[in-house]
């Protein structure tokens, strides 16, 4: 996929629209999956809330993983006078609003599961069309700026989603509708303020070829490269340790951490998220350029990953609200450095620059896969090995493995 032949968008306007569209998308993911659904399931079946959250999160993540490439393929092949991204972006957003309305009516675990699987499916149609806009319309020499804007939108969405969801835990159906409406607004803003190239306005000379067999062969071939494989394994393992804790933060505050009187668990999640995101963003801004200057990227990833893992010792030995704030600062900063430098390492170990998009897509599995496995694994640890203390121990061990996985990489220092 190449940049459109006719560039009708000014870059500032395009990036502003992308910031808004990505922010509301991440806000929905965090607010709905991280707080509202967990609160909803706890109301429906308090005794089995941990297992139910694991079930809903794990199954719905499978739908997200499947429908993202489906959405990308559908929008790639669309030839419409409305553009090829707009129909799927707006359609996915409107369908997501419908799924949120269904979630608000759910009165059983099965109903929540089905509604959120539908929500994940259509949200990934929206997401696939939205994320394709950068390679479609942003010149290659401005992709770094565009990536930074998307990264800032991710942080903004994390904060917005947790804060808004915390405000609506007493009226969960309305909270669902607010997030769904925001995504529709995001799709409309992107569609009306930017130009989605019509047939004849974009280069159709580059096509992805090959069916499932060819894609599987490409996947195996890429993972056959020594350094690329270790980056993949390191990211997948580290993210597994991260999501095992993150996806159960609400219940950690409900059942494990002693909160001050008057501080609701959902509000605590929002405050902790803001703390972690802000410190992570600051550390990212400092750590990324510093690793470039010192040319010691492996060392940055190892140190940051080890610090992030060891930060989990704080709530393990001090299950209090002040300790969680300290944990949020340290873990957020370490995770920010890890994320920034890990992205730099990824770009340096790609098996083939000519297949960069394919290989980056393969590495995205290291982000999506842990979200599928983490809920089930965390639920098993909590129920079988003594509660949330055991979950932190497991998170520490798995995160350490991920941090140290970059050591065998040969091509970078």
List keywords for this structure.
single chain; 413 residues; mainly alpha; Growth Hormone, Chain: A; 2 domains; 16 helices; disordered N terminus
Describe this structure in words.
It is found in: Cell membrane. It comes from Nonomuraea typhae. With 413 residues, this protein is mainly alpha-helical. The chain has two domains: 1-201, Growth Hormone, Chain: A; 211-413, MFS general substrate transporter like domains (Growth Hormone, Chain: A), CATH 1.20.1250. It has helices at 11-44, 49-77, 86-105, 109-131, 133-137, 143-167, 172-193, 212-223, 226-246, 249-255, 265-294, 297-310, 313-317, 321-348, 356-384, 388-404. Helix 1 packs antiparallel against helix 7, helix 6 runs antiparallel to helix 11 (265-294) and helix 10 packs across helix 11 (265-294). The longest helix is centred in the first third of the chain and has 34 residues, at 11-44. Residues 1-7 and 204-209 have low confidence and may be disordered.
Question: Could you give a quick summary of the protein structure above?
Answer:
The protein has 16 helices and no strands. With 413 residues, it is mostly helical. It folds into two domains: 1-201, Growth Hormone, Chain: A (Up-down Bundle), CATH 1.20.1250.20; 211-413, MFS general substrate transporter like domains (Growth Hormone, Chain: A).
């Amino acid at each position: 996929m190449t940049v459109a032949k006719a560039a009708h968008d000014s870059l500032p306007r395009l990036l502003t629209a992308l910031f808004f569209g990505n922010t509301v998308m991440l806000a929905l993911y965090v607010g709905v999956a991280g707080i509202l659904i967990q609160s909803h399931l706890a109301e429906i079946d308090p005794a089995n809330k941990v297992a139910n959250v694991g079930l809903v999160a794990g199954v719905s993540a499978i739908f997200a993983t499947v429908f993202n490439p489906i959405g990308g393929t559908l929008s790639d092949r669309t030839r419409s006078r409305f553009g090829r991204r707009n129909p799927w972006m707006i359609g996915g957003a409107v369908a997501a609003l419908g799924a949120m309305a269904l979630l608000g009516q759910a009165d059983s675990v099965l109903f929540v599961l089905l509604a959120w699987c539908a929500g994940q499916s259509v949200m990934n149609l929206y997401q696939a069309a939205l994320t394709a806009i950068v390679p479609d319309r942003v010149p290659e020499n401005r992709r770094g700026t565009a990536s930074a804007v998307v990264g800032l939108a991710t942080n903004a969405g994390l904060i917005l989603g947790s804060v808004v969801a915390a405000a609506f835990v007493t009226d969960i159906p309305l909270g669902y509708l607010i997030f769904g409406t925001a995504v529709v607004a995001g799709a409309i803003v992107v569609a009306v303020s930017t130009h989605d190239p019509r047939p004849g306005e974009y280069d159709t000379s580059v096509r992805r070829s090959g069916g499932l067999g060819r894609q599987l062969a490409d996947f195996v071939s890429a993972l056959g490269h020594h350094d690329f494989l270790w980056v993949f394994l390191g990211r997948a393992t580290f993210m597994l340790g991260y999501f095992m804790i993150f996806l159960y933060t609400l219940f950690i505050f409900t059942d494990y951490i002693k909160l001050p009187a008057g501080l609701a668990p959902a509000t605590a999640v929002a405050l902790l998220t803001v703390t972690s995101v802000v410190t992570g963003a600051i550390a990212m801004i400092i750590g990324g350029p510093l690793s470039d200057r010192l040319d010691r990227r492996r060392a940055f990833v190892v140190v940051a990953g080890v610090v992030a893992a060891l930060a989990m010792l704080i709530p393990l030995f001090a299950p209090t609200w002040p300790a969680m704030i300290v944990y949020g600062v340290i873990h957020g900063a370490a995770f920010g450095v890890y994320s920034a430098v890990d992205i730099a390492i990824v770009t340096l170990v790609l098996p083939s620059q000519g297949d960069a998009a394919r290989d980056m897509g393969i590495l995205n599995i290291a982000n999506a896969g842990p979200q599928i496995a983490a809920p089930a694994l965390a639920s098993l640890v909590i129920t079988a090995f003594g509660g949330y203390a055991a979950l932190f121990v497991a998170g520490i061990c798995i995160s350490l493995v991920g941090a140290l996985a970059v050591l065998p990489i040969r091509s970078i220092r």
